[in-house]
Amino acid sequence: MSLAKTYPKEIKQILSKYPPEHKRSAVMPLLYLAQRAEGYVNKAAMQDIARILEITETEVASIVGFYTLYHDEKAGKYRMQVCTDLPCALRGADEFLQNLCGNLGIKVGETTADGLVTLEAVTCLAACDKAPMFQTQGPDGIKYHENMTVDKTMELIEALKGVE
Amino acid sequence: MSHILLRHREIPDIHKMNVYKKNGGFAAFKNAVTKMKPSEVTDVVKSSNLRGRGGAGFPTGTKWLFIDNKTFPHYVVANADESEPGTFKDREILESNPLQFLEGLAIASYAVSASTAYVYLRGESWDIATLLDEKIAEMEKAGYLGENLFGTGYSLKIYTHLGAGAYICGEETALLESLEGKRGQPRVRPPFPALVGLYGKPTLINNVETLTNVPMIFANGANWYKAMGTMDSAGVKIFSLSGRVRKPGNYELPFGTTFRQLIYEHGGGILDGRPVKAIMPAGASSSLIVVDDKVLDTPMDYASVRTLRSELGSASVIVIDDTVSVDWIINKTIHFFKHESCGKCTPCREGTYWMQNITERIHSGKGTQGDVDLLLNVAKQIQGKCLCPLGEFSTMAVVTGIERFPQDFKKAVKA
């Protein structure tokens, strides 16, 4: 199913934000749209976006490659992205991530056996006063989880299992 | 003193239209559009001495004056790409006092005769974008955005645009590239965005906190604003306090508040009662300040922090105690900048890569004093050679860390 057929209303709304002669500006919101269903942008979607915006597929791919929130490979349903930058690390973020790895039985970058969670270490998420913290990137967008402990995180993962 | 920016701390529902209006909301915007010429609006901001809160501290009114009035249309872009490690102030404004920010953006748009404004948010601010879209719709319904506002013929539309995880897009020309649907890589300047900005048109770019000051300046007058803070740095600032303090968080205080007041009175002092060893006042981009009593009693304004051979920047004060070694600090900052380098300028792209290799060697206990010297050498070769400040930023903690805390590196390397 092409992007244009799946999300006609959303695409129209996105394009209305930018001058028609500069519709290339819509590439980022369209990529989020393309990523919504499966958590990554496949080749067909990139072709669709190129067609809608009248740019080349390579130009679309270069955007996917440049920005860290776009993915071109399938991962877990939720990407759990733990900030390990300096201010968070000063409040125990590295130890938190390590303990989380231990509890989940995976390394950073790996996905749990049930395909639910991919654990990642990321750079600053502007929540330095509420470390340890992470965001989940999933079908419902991006959510922040702050002042976290390993126990609270394991409870969250249990809850995510129940989400349709 | 009650808050000027973080007003939700006294007025909990200020994000709601009726509450915001009851507290004076949109009076400034309506008054500006119906009773003032755009140039008069700019004059007020100029005489308030408001300076940009994104880090550079450039005079805001002067920036508005730079917009080229020979070429149209004009655009305004609010920079909400807050990504500097240690900075989390704009997020609180947007989440809790969004209408005051949007009113500031609307006033700025009128002042530079722009009919379209964008809010460029960091991609992680997914929920904030949804909230702002709701607030923008409410403003349209209430007649504060849209066509022919207050019957004057002035029209204004505001749109949100989400980035996708790139620190570099906080740099204003990279932000414009990103908004145009390209990779976020900085442009060669000049020409500056005031002449050639979004879609090649004159564009004003202001930080969220800067814009959020504006409605209050109009409500209370430029002189009222100027009376707060110091001669050099007028008004109030949100200090994002993080690191090894008991109570990290945002503190809105007048410029000129000392480090000691921020850390001990507001931040509750250091964890476990340890001494402060170093301060990074401008996030991960900071020069490291060696802390003594004189430093703690230094007022936080742009000029005073410069006397400590550092910069106030966006006032993201990261506090480091004596349990932390500086070789570990720069290992963290180098990894950040290596990840965020956009790759356009060779000194930054290659320099951060090699700095990362060397700092990893030192950090893993396999380094020698020769590695420390090499790291310093590589950092100094990046300086002054890049299009945007990211390259420079990547070296600040490295150079000042090695030069001001040599004992930490002696301990970290093999004899």
Structure in words:
- The complex is a heterodimer of chains A (164) and B (415).
- Chain A has helices at residues 3-6, 8-15, 27-36, 43-53, 57-66, 86-89, 93-104, 150-161; strands at 78-83, 117-122, 134-138, 141-145.
- With 164 residues, chain A is α+β, with helices and mostly antiparallel strands.
- Chain B is built from 18 helices and nine strands.
- In chain B, 56% of the residues are buried.
- In chain B, a hairpin with a 5-residue loop joins strand 5 (236-243) and strand 6 (249-254).
- Chain B folds into three domains: 7-226, Rossmann fold, CATH 3.40.50; 236-321, Ubiquitin-like (UB roll); 326-412, NADH-ubiquinone oxidoreductase 51kDa subunit, iron-sulphur binding domain (de novo design (two linked rop proteins), Up-down Bundle), CATH 1.20.1440.
- Chain A binds chain B through residues 17, 19, 22, 24-29, 31-32, 53, 55, 62-63, 66-70, 85-87, 89-91, 122-130, 135, 141-144, and chain B through 82-88, 90-91, 122-124, 126-127, 159, 161-167, 178-184, 199, 240-244, 248-250, 284, 316, 318, 320, 324, 329, 332-333, 336, 339-340, 342.
Task: Throw out a few tags for this protein.
heterodimer, A: 164 residues, Arc Repressor Mutant, subunit A, 2 domains, B: 415 residues, alpha/beta, Rossmann fold, 3 domains, four-stranded parallel beta sheet, 9 strands, 13% strand
Sketch the major β-sheet of chain A. 4 strands, mixed
Taken in chain order, the helices and strands of chain A follow as HHHHHEHHEEEH
The poorly predicted ranges of chain B are: none
Query: SS-based structural class of chain A?
Result: alpha+beta
Strand content of chain A: 5-15%
